[in-house]
Each structure stands twice: as C-alpha cells, then as structure tokens.
Amino acid sequence: MPCAKGSPNCTTSNSSDQYGILSGHNTGSGYDLATGLGSVNAQNLVNNWSSITFLPSLTTLAASVSGATVTSISVAHGTPVSVGSNVSAGSGATGTPTGQVALMATPNPTPGNLSASLGIEALTLANGTASSTSIILPGGSYSLTAHYQGDATFGSSDSTPGIPVNITAEKSKTLISIPAFDPQTGMETGNSPTSLVYGSPYLARIDVGNAQAALSFPAKPICIPPSCPTGTITWTDSLNGGPAAALDGGTFSLNSEGYTEDQLIQLSGGSHLLTASYGGDNSYGASSSTYALTITPAPTTTTAQPLVSTPVEGLPFQVLVNGSAQTQSGAAPTGTITFVDGTTQLGNPSSVTGFPGQNGSAPGFSLNPNYTNVTIATAGAHTLTAQYSGDSNYAPSASSAFTLNVLHLTTASISASPSTVNYGSAVTITGVINTKVPASNVSLKPTGTISLYGNADGQITNGLTVTTAPDGSGNWEIQATATVTPSNSEGFSINYTGDSNYAPVSATSNFITVILPDFSMAPDPAYLTTTAGQTGSQQLTITPLNNLASTVTFSCSTLVTVGITCSFGPPSVNLTNSTPATVTVTLTTLPPSATSTAVLLAPPTVKRPPWPGGRGWQPGLELVCLVALLLVLLPRQNRILRFAFGLVAGFGLLYAFGCGGGGTVGGGGGPTSVAITVSATKVPAGTSPSVTLSASVTSTKAVTGTITFWEKGNNGTLTPPLTIVAGSASSQVGLPLVGTHQIYAQYSGDSQNQGSQSSTINVVATGTEYISVQAANGPVSHYSTIWVTIQ
C-alpha cells in the first residue's frame, strides 16, 4: 500500500522518493482472511480480550455561568456556559490520562432520539484537564456529566454526580429566500426577487435561526450544528389574496444546518403570499415569516397559416394555428384563439389544446384539431390575425397578419332532357353558373372556363354554346348548352374553373337512360367435339330483346388453345323487328403429322474457285457474258457467226461456271451440312399432357453443340439448349394447351457442322377447353362459351 515518506512502517527504495510502500508483515499460518490481520492469531485475540486490564481513572466536572461557579444550570438557550473537567489516575494508579472527555446529557433531550444520552461536545485533555467557555447546551431538562473514554493505559470513567440542567427555548427567526437562476448558465442570480416570470428556474429556501439571524447573498449559514433548530416547517401559499393552502405537500423537515428547500416549487401566475411557520423545539421557540412574490405570465408566440389561398365568401375555410411559450418548463397553456379581420372579430373564440414543457421542449398550444374553420362574409381583400387570449401563466400574443383574396360565391346547376331516349337519339343539356353580383358591375363580369362531361362519353365539345349575361334577378349568370347523342345511359356534369373574382364550382345532372338495341345469344355455353385436322361447327341464335335495329358482328378468342382458328358464317347479322338470326361458328384445327418424325437436310454450301489476282466477278468474264447475250440476239441467218461465238462463250462458261455464280459442292475446310431428325411420342389420353421430344443430328463429321426445341406460335422455346450426346438429345416437355402444337428442333452448329433447323412436326394434345365468342353491335356486347373437345 502506498504511504507518505517518513510515516511509520513506510519504506522507500530511493532516498529522493516522496512516497513509499508500507512494509507490513508477511502472512503466516495464522493469517485471517476475514479480518486481514496479517499473521496475528485472531482466535487468540478473541479468547484473551477479556483478560486485558486498564488502570482506573477518576473524572470530575465543574460549570460556571457568567463567571460564577454553579452547581446547577438554568439559562435560556444560546447562553454560553463554561465547563472544566479533570481526569486523574484512580486509586492505586499513577500517571496522567490522555484523550478526550465528552459532555453528555442524560436523559436525551432530543425528541424522538432513541439513544439514552446525547453527546454535546468533546473536549481534549491537556495534562489531565479539559475546558471550554462557550458551550451552548441544548434545550430541555437533564443531567450534565463528563465521560472519559480512556486511553491505552487508563480505563473510562464518568463524573458524578451530574449537574442538573434546565435550558429554556430562545426566540427563533424564520427566513424565506427565493434563489433564482440564469436559465442559460444555471448560476444563481439572487435570492430575494419580488417578481419572476412564470416557468423561470428558481426554488424556495426556509432558514430558521436565533433572533439575530439575517439573510445574505450568497447565502451563509445562520447557525452552527449541533446548535441549529430542529423540527418541521409548515409551508403555505395564498394566491391573489385567497385563503392560504398547503404548498407542495405543506410540511418540510429542517436539516442539520437548520434549513429546508422546496425544490419542486412552480408557482402559477399571479400575486403570491408565501408563509413559512416553524413549530419550535426544546432549544428554539416557534416563529413564522411571509414572502410576497408576483409571478408574471411567460411571453408566447402565435403563428397562423391558412390552408387555402382564396377562400369563398360565406363558406368556412381552415386556418392552422400553433403557439409556444418562451420558457422551458411550465404547465399546459389554456385560453382561446380569436380571429380578427382588421378590427372585426370573426366568429366565436376557439379553445386551445395545450401541452406542458418537458424534456427540454417549451410549453405550447394548438387548436384541436390543429386548424379551425373561419368564415368571411364578403368577397375581396381581407387582412386577418389570430389572437391568443393568454391565461394566468402565459401572456397574450397575436400572429403576423396575413391577407386573403376572398372569392364571390357561385352556384351551379345542370339538367338533361329528355330523361329516356332510344339509342342514337339526341339529348339537350343545359348548365347554369349563378352569382350574387349585379350585372351592372361590369368589372366583375365572370370569366373562366365552362366544361360539360358525360359519365360514358367524356368531355363534350361539339355544339357547346356558352353565354354570359344577367339572370332574371339582374345578377351575372353563365349559361352553357349542348345537344349530344349519348352512347349509353349516363349522367352529365358541369365544371366552372372560376377566375380571380369567382369561386370554382361544379354540379351533376339527372340521370339519362338510353334504351340500347340489346340481344341475347344461345346456346351459351355450346359444346363441340372434333378430331384434330378436321373442322367442327356450332350454330348460334341471336335474338333481339327489343325492336331497335342493329348490326351484330362476331369474333372469337382462342388464347387458351393452340392450332385452332374460328370463322363465322355470315360474319355479321342485321337484327330488325325483334326477328332472331342465326350464325354458324366453324372451328378449324391443324392435323397431326403423318409420321412421328420430321427430317431436314441442310442445303450444301456452293463455293466459287478463287480467281487469279482477286475474288468475285472478273473483267474477262464480263466480256464472255456479253458475247453470250449477243449470240441470243443474232438473227437466224448468222448461224455460223453465232456458232463461233458460242464456242468462245462455251469455253468461258466452262471456266467461270456461269456469269458471276455457280460453284461446286463441298471442297475446302468449311462447316459440313447436317440432317436433323425430330421425333415425338404420342400424348397419352387421360394423362398429364406431356411429350418426349428427340432430335438426332447426322453428319459426315463428329457432332457437338446443342439442340433446342421450339414451338411455333404461343409457347416459343420448349426447352433450354440441350447438350448433344452421341449425336442426339431428348427431353420431356409439357403441352398445357389443348390443340395441335407445331414443334421443331434448332441445332446450334459447331466448328465442323452448320447450324440448322428441322421442319415442324405436329403433335396433338387432346382434351377439352373453351373458346370465347363475342357478339357486339357497338353499345352492347355479349359473350358465349364453346367447349371444344379435341380427339
């Protein structure tokens, strides 16, 4: 363990060191882990403790008050008492005791103290004597004695008899202070303010001392323990002259230095009269004190933001309002928000929802929800502010002013007539935008855009007429009319975009019923069975559901089948006078391949022999070809000449293999042509539609590379590239679609063999699937399902 140089048992390894290590003792067999007493035998220490003896001592005590020796003490608390104590060797002993004597009060005068005696003060012996002239004895009645605690030679002893003591309580003084702090630095700025801002940091302190006690700043102790007052403080507050009420629990205990603190204090706004009442103890009498403190409202900030830039006269619009206090703590604000247009109040005040300051955030408020509805009765420019009323804790505030352009109110109506029409008949639409602005005010003549819409036909532009003129009351009115031929039953709407003076508006009309030339189609569903490669037919009956004439056309969808096409005879029918018509649907299917294989021999590559000095068409050949052409054009009488030219041309042709073309099969080191054979198993009836596809590649050279199986039409590739092994590759593939699949193989080629594609092989997947038939006459469409079974 470190030790200071020169202290007992402190050893240093260097004479200049200021610190050393305690030498201690080496541990031995008697080392006690619990006490850590080195090699001391703890058991021997315990066993022989009672055999230790001390020399007897004799203690006396004398007291005097105001210089007069007394045998009893009866004074007020706070009066100094002089005491003297002598400790000497007892009978048969010699020497002078050392140490301290303690002044003891018995019985203990402290209320609630569990010990039998109270130690008042310890005095140090000098040559066996200890004294003091400034002993402050605690209040109460008891016996005062001196207790000698003994030393290494002399045992303890007590003075006897005790000196009777009766100490009466002295007057006390209760002091209230309010330590206030800088919110930025946390430093105390004073302890006796007369006013504070709500939410600012401060606490309350109550000191109790003797009659001469006084406050100071910075605060200093007004008593010295253990002579300080004890007991409790009753703590109350009277707000704005009202009755006093317990504050923060109402009762606080004094600490050993005679004061207590209310650290949770947070007074509300207003005038407060704080009262601290001390009940007294054996040493100090009761006392009380008051403190007047005014809490002023904390400043606030209010913001307001309209959620629309152009409200409409007479219609409510929303304004977002928020506020915050300029303090970091405090209760939730209360109060109201009032909107003012210039100096005119708009509507009734709205209560705010407040939230307290916490976690470093300032108290604040908003409307609940965050916005409120405001209504302005007249159009034009208006300047608004939002005013917060404040409450006892928070000061009023107003938002920055904001200006709004309030639009004139508009209303809209639209009608369509007649309300029921046959398909192809016209309907008249009339839409009106009304205002309350007199047409005499030419500067406020409404502009903007009028649009008419049909639910089924969209925007109406043809034949639309828009006029702006006074209505029957002399106010501005916009009227829009149009004649339309609706394609279906629908409603209509009018939309006015508004302008800088008028609000946008829209309206919807009555519903127009259009009687359509409807029909039915039977049978639905229909059933048809055919063999792949053959055709099948099904007759459909089209029956009008009213007497409106129409032309019905037909189409079909075969997306869930393959290798099946459809046609209609006739392709369309005319329905009149509720007379049914018939149409025949014919389905055509692709036949299966005659054999289960398809072979393709790739065409040979024709190569031209090289020409001296270059490649391709040679100048000499141009002359040969020209001669051949002239031979053809010569007249019959020039046969001899033609024959001569023919010999020349023949030799040229033998050399050139024709005019710029020709060649021989094979030769050279290019890729070799191959033959591809494709085969497929039959699709087993009644099992999962699948087929095993095989392809073999025949060549005069070794074959490597891959085979990929493809299907024309719907499916594209059926397999990934399959590696050729021993000249062939195979794979089982699913054929999910009913019908005839056209399958072929694609050979990738390699360095010695040309890439090639086989011819197709038709594979039939039997089963039943549907084909959708559509019949339509323009506004009306109906669908029928034909279930097709392919055998």
In CATH's first tier, which class of the largest domain applies?
Mainly Beta
Q: How many β-strand stretches?
A: 63
From the spread of the alpha carbons, the general shape counts as: elongated
Portion of residues within helices: under 10%
Biggest sheet descriptor: 8 strands, antiparallel
Tally of separate domains = 7
Rg is 60 Å
Number of helices: 3
How much of the sequence lies in strands comes to over 45%
Terminal residue distance: 106 Å
Low-confidence region ranges:
604-668
CATH architecture of the largest domain: Sandwich
Roughly what is the average pLDDT, rounded to an integer? 88
CATH topology of the largest domain: Immunoglobulin-like
**Structural class by secondary-structure content:** mainly beta
Describe the structure.
By secondary structure, this protein is mainly beta. It has 7 domains: 2-51, no CATH class; 57-168, Immunoglobulin-like (Sandwich), CATH 2.60.40.10; 172-296, Immunoglobulins (Immunoglobulin-like), CATH 2.60.40.10; 300-404, Sandwich (Immunoglobulin-like); 410-515, Immunoglobulins (Immunoglobulin-like); 517-604 and 669-791, Sandwich (Immunoglobulin-like), CATH 2.60.40.2310; 606-665. It has 3 helices and 63 strands. α2 (619-633) packs antiparallel against α3.
Write the layout of secondary structure elements.
Elements: E1 2-4, E2 10-11, E3 19-22, H1 42-47, E4 57-65, E5 68-70, E6 73-76, E7 81-89, E8 100-106, E9 118-124, E10 129-135, E11 140-148, E12 157-158, E13 163-168, E14 172-177, E15 180-181, E16 188-190, E17 195-197, E18 204-210, E19 232-239, E20 245-253, E21 259-262, E22 270-278, E23 287-296, E24 300-306, E25 317-325, E26 336-341, E27 344-355, E28 364-374, E29 380-388, E30 397-398, E31 402-406, E32 410-417, E33 420-422, E34 427-438, E35 450-454, E36 458-460, E37 465-470, E38 475-484, E39 492-496, E40 505-508, E41 513-515, E42 519-522, E43 526-530, E44 535-544, E45 550-557, E46 561-562, E47 564-569, E48 572-575, E49 581-589, E50 597-601, E51 606-607, H2 619-633, H3 639-656, E52 664-665, E53 675-680, E54 690-698, E55 706-711, E56 716-717, E57 722-723, E58 728-734, E59 738-747, E60 756-757, E61 761-765, E62 767-776, E63 781-790
Parallel strand pairs: 6-13, 17-23, 33-41, 43-63, 46-59
Antiparallel strand pairs: 1-3, 2-3, 4-5, 4-7, 7-10, 8-9, 8-11, 11-12, 11-13, 14-18, 15-16, 18-21, 19-20, 19-22, 22-23, 24-25, 25-28, 26-27, 26-29, 27-28, 29-30, 29-31, 32-34, 34-38, 35-36, 35-39, 37-38, 39-40, 42-44, 44-49, 45-48, 45-62, 47-49, 50-53, 51-52, 53-54, 54-58, 55-56, 55-57, 55-59, ...
Helix pairs in contact: 2-3
